[in-house]
Amino acid sequence: MANPQVDLILFNGKITTLDKKKPEVSAIGIKDGVVSAIGSDDEIKKLTEKSTPAIDLKKRRVIPGLNDSHLHLIRGGLNYNMELRWDGVPSLAYAMEMLKGQVLRTPPPQWVRVIGGWSEFQFVEKRMPTLNEINAIAPDTPVFILHLYDRALLNAAALRAVGYTNDTPDPIGGRIERDGKGNPTGMLIAEPNAMILYSTLAKGPKLNLADQINSTRHFMRELNRLGLTSCIDAGGGFQNYPEDYQVIEDLHKNEQLTIRIAYNLFTQKPGNELMDFQRWSKMVTPYSGDNMYRQNGAGEMLAFSAADFEDFLYARPDMPSNMEGDLKKVVRFLVENRWPFRLHATYDETISGALNVFEEINRDVPFNDICWFFDHAETISDANLERIKSLNGGIAVQHRMAFQGEYFIQKYGVKKAKRSPPIRKMLQMGIPVGAGTDATRVASYNPWISLYWMVSGKTVGGTVLYGDENKLERLDALRLYTLGSAKFSREENNKGSLSPGMYADFAVLSQDYFTIPEESIKNITSLLTILGGKVVYAAGEFSALDLAKELPVSPDWAPVRHYGGYYRAPIHYSCSCQGKQKTSLDGLLGMTGNDTGPLNPWSFGCDCFAY
After folding, report:
1. Taking Cα atoms as reference points, which of 321, 303, 298, 436 lies closest to residue 377?
2. What is the DSSP secondary-structure string of 11-69?
3. Which of 251, 266, 260, 253 is closest to 231 using CA atoms?
4. Burial 217-232 (b: 16+ CB within 10 A, else e)
5. Fewer beta carbons within 10 angstroms: which end of the chain, N or C?
6. Burial of 95 (0-12, 13-18, 19+ CB in 10 A)
7. What pLDDT is stored for residue 173 in this prediction?
8. What is the full DSSP assignment across 446-457?
9. Minimal CA–CA distance to 518: which of 455, 437, 436, 444?
10. At CA 180, angle to CA 174 and CA 186, rounded to 5?
11. Is 248 helix (H, G, I), strand (E, B) or coil?
């Protein structure tokens, strides 16, 4: 064949394409990084020649690569290697054993940090650690444990490291808990916003540049392990542009990105938000870049006075009187310069104020085809959904309620929790919706927890939030995590489905998302993740295809070396040995896996499974 129509085929699979004409096929052909053909095994094999590489999918379920529409990958990557992740850990007892082990190996002046992705409701004990327990484990090594948006736990060594004493005043918007003598106890409380938590965390040591690069590569690999191939990075506090983008831009330049990234710019200076965007508009233009790394506009912070960080343990904070005025200056500039934007908004009251601004500006400078959307919108009303639709806006939803649902019910009741947010109503109205996580400082980056939340309507602790009126069918949830998210970076014509001409980004799953029990959705991983027709992660029966499995971890004390990222529960699925090479639990304790180092006590399986 003079000009082969494919340079790689995958066959003998159950491939969910999200293509309207061929929603499920058994084979796919790839040419130059894009899908060239989909169909039956015989149809695709006719397009090959003898030397064309082919991968037998062994009847595995394949889906388009997942796309997180709200992820803090760039910031999270800089810190991933030095964070101890409690994401998915089922027991506080084991979480504390992890903490104890990491304290012993962390050298001064480094801290041990547990930064988001967990909730006490996931633990069988249904409680958080106490300050006394943390201090007993770590008398000398600073420990900082972030809990959702509401508090942080610091041991005595961490209090010394940040310099908090009985003379330290409470910052605006936060409180340092004190004992009867006025000394800090180690509890920092967000009242009403999380600035005290994040500003204190920022006092800790950073990794050097080489370690930040390694850390970001490992974070992307972890996301690939879970089937993610794209994200929209929402910026973040203490993430300055362009200074804190050096690592991701170096990786892009060196062709080492394994996640496609569209990034938004997040203002950093209260009172000077407009100046930030005016300066950035002279440096970059929306959608500039390429198919791996591109600019995506402004947000999720547009004006600090418009931010309503949710802490469902406390009443909704009233927005300041200058909110609409501050927001108007920024949004008018963005619309006049045709910049797409997104805005963090938890509560309906905040959304109402923002929409007042948007509607006023739209009368003078029509939004027309500008891509804009709200993030979160947990308590949005039907009236404001109508207003968003009339302005051609969208909503990015995240599974923050999976981690805070119990607190929401405690504060606002079961009835209001049933539509927090009302995703099915949004879809019925035809509003664009994309799905994501808002990881890493509150919810976990694991997309399967988010998909589980949308399908089951439950929290990670098993509390039922939604009835059938607000739960999604599995296929609809998958669409939000693929095609839905792609719309928010104006890439719906390039990714989100496995149609001819679209990027060849997909994941071969460890379990069949469409047929397994609902509770098992949380345990799905990818056995083979393909990005642009190239393998970026492989495990199990496909592990021989993985060229990056020997990526070293630095620094040598990094928690990821010993515990990995998201907790790896035992996953029972068929493999090439059909269970004949079963390995005993005793044989695995202390064993080194090819990805993350020593296995946790719950991981066991056959010898051909790559942990």
Report:
1. 436
2. ESSEEE---SS-SEESEEEEETTEEEEEE-HHHHHTT--TTS-EEE-TT-EEEEPEEEE
3. 260
4. bbbbbbbbbbbbbbbb
5. N
6. buried
7. 84
8. -HHHHHHHHHH-
9. 455
10. 45
11. helix
448 Rama sector, left if φ>0, alpha if ψ -120 to 50, beta otherwise? alpha
CB-based contact 239:74 (threshold 8 Å): yes
Distance separating alpha carbons of residues 78 and 206, to the nearest angstrom: 8
Are 339 and 372 within 8 A, CB to CB? Answer: no
128 Cβ contact list (under 8 Å, min separation 6): 92, 120, 147, 153
pLDDT in tens, 364-382: 999 999 999 999 999 999 9
Listed range (211-215, 448-452, 599-603) with the worst mean pLDDT: 599-603
- Write down how long the chain is: 611
- Contact at 8 Å (CB) between 213 and 49? no
The position carrying tokens 């695995």 is 588
Convert 411-420 to b/e letters by CB count within 10 Å (16 or more is b).
bbeeeebbbb
DSSP 3-state of 600: coil
Q: Dihedral sign for Cα 387, 68, 472, 346, please.
A: negative
CA quadruple 160, 161, 167, 172: dihedral sign: negative
Task: Name the residue among 587, 503, 508, 582 with its Cα closest to residue 543.
Answer: 508
How many CB atoms lie under 10 A from the CB of residue 208? 11
DSSP code string of 130-194:
PHHHHHHH-SSS-EEEEETTTEEEE-HHHHHHHT--TTPPPPTTEEEEE-TTS-EEEEEEESS-T
Compute the 3-state secondary structure of the chain and give helix, strand, coil in percent, each to the nearest 5: 35, 20, 45
Q: Measuring CA to CA, which residue among 296, 229, 289, 214 is closest to residue 259?
A: 229
**Cα separation of the two ends of the chain:** 40
User: Can the peptide bond before residue 107 be classed as cis, meaning omega within 30 degrees of 0?
Assistant: no
DSSP 8-state class, residue 115: E
Phi, psi of 470 (to 5 degrees): -130, 10
Secondary structure element (H or E) that encloses residue 561, with its range: helix 559-563
**Single-letter amino acid code for the residue at 219:** F
- State phi, psi for 169 to the nearest 5 degrees: -75, 155
Backbone angles phi, psi at 46, to 5 degrees: -65, -15
| Residue 570's pLDDT band (cuts 50, 70, 90) | low
255-295 pLDDT, tens per residue?
Answer: 999 999 999 999 998 999 999 999 999 999 999 999 999 99
